[in-house]
Structures are given as C-alpha cells and as structure tokens.
Amino acid sequence: MKNFSTGAVRPLAGRVAMAALASAMFAAPAVAAPTTGTHCSFRPNAPDQHVVIKRDTLWDISGAFLEHPWCWPQVWGMNRDEIRNPHWIYPGQVIYFDRAHGRLTLVKPGSNDAEAGLPPVTKLSPQVRTEALGLDAVPSIPSSAIEPFLTQPLVVEPRELDAAPRIAATPETRVYLGEGDRIYVRGPLNGATSFQVFRPGKELVDPDTGKVVAHEAAYVGAAKLVREAGQGVDVHTFTVTRSVQEMGIGDRLLPTPPMPLRNYVPHAPATPIAARVMAMANESNYAVQSQVVTVNRGALDGLDVGSVLQLYHLGKTIPDPGGSKGFLGIGKSTMRMPDEQYGELFIFRVFGHVSYGLVMQVTLPVEIGDVAKSPE
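Now predict its structure.
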C-alpha cells in the first residue's frame, strides 16, 4: 500500500508518522528474548551511528548493529500490525545506537528534538499534484533479486490453470507468436483487460512426501484485450504486448496483478515451521546468496511474507569407526550427524503450500532437500 500527499511533504510517510517511528518504534527497552527463543543481541563492535545511503538495505543496516539482522522488529519494539505496514526509512537519515538504553533510535541520544535526524522538508510547486511516498525508501532486502518473482513465475495448485482463458487460435494458423501479434483467446475475462500469459511448467515435488504439491507455471509474456467476443463469436481478440518466450496455442492467461508492497519486515513465523527446499529458480541443484529457492510450506502452513527461516544441511549417517559390529559381526555400526545450520532464508512470496524465499547470508551452497525451519 502506498502513502500519498499533496503540498509540502517529507520523503517519509508524513512528519507525524516519522516522529512516531522515532519515539515509539525504536523505544523498546534493552533487547528481550522473543517468543521463539532466539536472543536478539547487539554486536560487540556495533557502531555508534549509521548514515543511511541509497544502496543500503534494512537487512544490511541492522546487520551492522545486531548479531541476527532479521530480528530487528523485536529490537525496535514493533508489533504485528507495524510489521505488516512498517514505516519508511530514507537515505540521509541517521540511525543511532543508544548504548545507555540498549536500543536503536532515529533521535540522537541526549537530544530532545523529536524531529532530529529527519530528512528535510521537500517543497512542491503550487499546482495541485499527488506525490507517491516510499519510492526512494530503503528496501528491506535487495529488490532487484526478487523483482521478477513478485508477479512471475507463478505457483499454481494442480488443475488451477484449467479454468483460465487460453489461447485458442492464431492468425493464419501461426504456431508461435511475439510482440505485436494478434491472438484469439477463449474463456471468461471477468472484466479484466490486461493479462499475463503462462505455460504450465515443472512439477514441484514435496521432498517429505514425494507427492506433487503444485506446478510452477512459466511466464511467457503479456497480452492486452483489443476486442471482446461479440454476438455469435467465441473468441476475444488480444495483442501480445510483451514476449519473453514464444507464445502458442494452449497457453493460459491470468489477469495482471497489482504490484505488491515491497516494504517487507523480517520476523520469525508465528507458528513453528519445518520446511524443505524443493526447487531452485536457476534450474541448478545449488543456490547461493541472493538467489531464489522454493520451499514446501506456505500460507496454509503458517508462513507469511517476511518470515525468516534458518537453513540446515541434513545430518548424514556415517560409519562409526569405533562402534561395535552388526549382527554376527557383519557390517558396521553407524552414527547420525546433527543437522548443520549454515544460513538464512527470507520469505517474500507465499502461496497455499509453497513459498519463494531469498537466500541471505550463507556459508555453504543451498541444496534441494535442505531443511528450512523457524529460528532457534
């Protein structure tokens, strides 16, 4: 959700909201252990202050102060409503470490000025205009890494695309199409005029059950309605407005979704989560930092946007060189090694039983089958 204003504005969601952020959101007492049991502590070498610059992310800023960057909502005293609709932070602001009170603040310690550290007022021209706030705000995580996944590709439940409008014919029986070409679509449009075009893609198999839980539909482009089907006509006329792959008969259309809110705030899931990595966006068997992976848990399992999970390699079963022999002295005893925690995953898009996550700091590559669970 965007905030709007007219007249003189601050590049934040209003001076009052910013003052509230400075006095309330950061006013938590020295760090308390959250309900998940994770201890949010400051780094021994945390700086006294940080000047926010354009290339910063909130994750990076918090990482300069905190041992666990993802738990900054608890350090800043944010409740669940504030996590869902957080305030903006902008380049030029200063974040201070108030060591005396064990907290972060936008107000310089010892200052009584409620507006200290705020960006200057921006004067707009006298004409009536609407200014969208938040466009220059510091993102929580690198937005470029997740941009393509905010609206595409798409995870769909089995047979979910079956009822969607489909490309039924092409001019002059052409098999594949590109930008500017006409296509003829059959199916209900329900008042929409702008659509994305998908092709049913790979199966997503749950590593725990071995069952197909969803399909990842491949995004092939976009199309715009030219003319709805008239009386006695079975198909609607569309024009292809974007093509990343050649479209063809049988591809499905879904209404273009609104651009989602990007001001995510990381937090532990409200309920314990034990997920597994199902797939990699790069079609590889491995993923590294700032790449996207798919896990087998979603909104119906308790995940929401901004949830942070810890990544583990499953502990291997290896021979025990000093153990006893097996039955009749045949074979060797084995031992199960512990799961190895090596990184964190930031959930940024959630479906029913499937979610997309951005790999954050990792010390080892992510592999299919790895465990992703609530922070401990």
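Residues 88 and 134 are 6 Å apart (CA to CA).
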